[in-house]
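pls ignore typos typing on phone
iron/sulfur cluster + seq
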Amino acid sequence: MTELDETTLVFVAHLDLELEKLTGRSADRTKVLDDISLQLLEGETLGIIGESGSGKSVLLKAIAGLVPVNSGAVYFETPPESMYKAVKLEKEYIQGAKTGQGAIPQAGEIISPDLSELRKRFSLIGKSLRKTRKSRKEIYFVFQGSRTAIDPKKTVWDTIAESFKRGTDLNRSEIDNRIKEVAEAAGLRETDLQKYPNDMNVEELQIVNIARALAVEPKLAIMDEPTSDMDISAKAQILNTLRDYQYSRGMSYIVASNDLNVIRVLSDRVAVMYLGKVVEYSTLSNIYSGMLHPYTKMLISNSITLENGQGLIDGQIGDRSPVIPSIPAGCAFHTRCPVAFKNCGWTAAEIAPLIREIMILNKNTDLSNFPPYHEIIPDLGANSLKITFEGGTHISYEFVGELNRLIEARVLLEGGIPLQAVESVAVSPGGDFVTIQLLKPRVPRLMEVKPGHFASCFQYGGLEDYPEKEPEEPKAKTNEEAA
Ligand code: SF4
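k done
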């Protein structure tokens, strides 16, 4: 993100990750992370929300260097002056080279030498563990699924003590005191410290998981669903402890959770993710009381009406959540957005069933003078539909006019929004087929709508990046014209 603040601890810039990197299959070109930029200030918590499949967990792992990425940068503990410069140049990079192109770098987009140098010197991405060991020692990752994250052969005491093997200045008795202190703060009893994981339930193990992160007091703790297995009282205690440690030790957190209460209690800033993209980012109060993006509105308003009052969002909203690897073109949220409009990214594949419906519905009425259609063929590259007819009949301009009228009539009906994306209906020169041309899918980019409040939605601008028509190439003059 783009706050120029000298207390920035982590700056994530333009992270891109294609599924191929995770699966090893070259056909998996879907973006799991798509141009993610985020900022975490020292002593603050960045909360990340979004449904399952939004990319929250992968993003956390990418920041921690636990999964590879295709491109981008993660600046951590960068000297203030260089961090300031990196934030500024990374911001210019998105506003310049990437503007209007969505997340995919286009041919000819070149990172400036200054930015390239900054990435080379300070970004953790692409560097070996050996080279980044010192920085990574200050990052602690708390995994989701505590039972698998804890060695079953070690007692709780040994499990927590093991965290110090990453390197510490403390002596043996200081470590012992630290373990007792953190265990008590997290809500573990003294007797728990001698237990083995198999003697504990998942809630207790999750507490151990967090306690061992807090014990070493890293500068940054990255936590994936830290309280998902806890009951309300254990959760309250651990959230208090996390806050206490943050205030007293100056720790910073990045937390992903489906539990909006956890996000509300811990976060200073919140990023909302949808299908691999950050669609809104701002302070906690802006997100909760001044949310901009239709997805955020859906997410938060649905969560607070849930019966159990827990504010859980996982899989709770709508039933049309597309699952990676099929990310809709244009604004990925357009298939569920209650306020989507014609420019939001409708594709030929999405519109084909509606056109088919029109053709069938009107087969015996308005279009009865015309031959029945044979096929409706979407051309995904050109974002158009070709309608062919039975019997090779010649199609007249009257038919095209009638079809246009029917499309316009259905634009006003429920479900008619996609039809607004129809740009033109034309008959082929030979009169043997009709082409329905749709608007080109466009990708909204994350923009600073208000100071410190970012959203990616065409309601707040960005369409101006896309001219209504592609500029036409100037035609070469004929010999006669030249003369
Ligand atoms: S750009 Fe905005 S209005 Fe359009 S579909 Fe996306 S979220 Fe909805």
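Residues 111 and 117 are 10 Å apart (CA to CA). The two ends are 56 Å apart (CA to CA). more later
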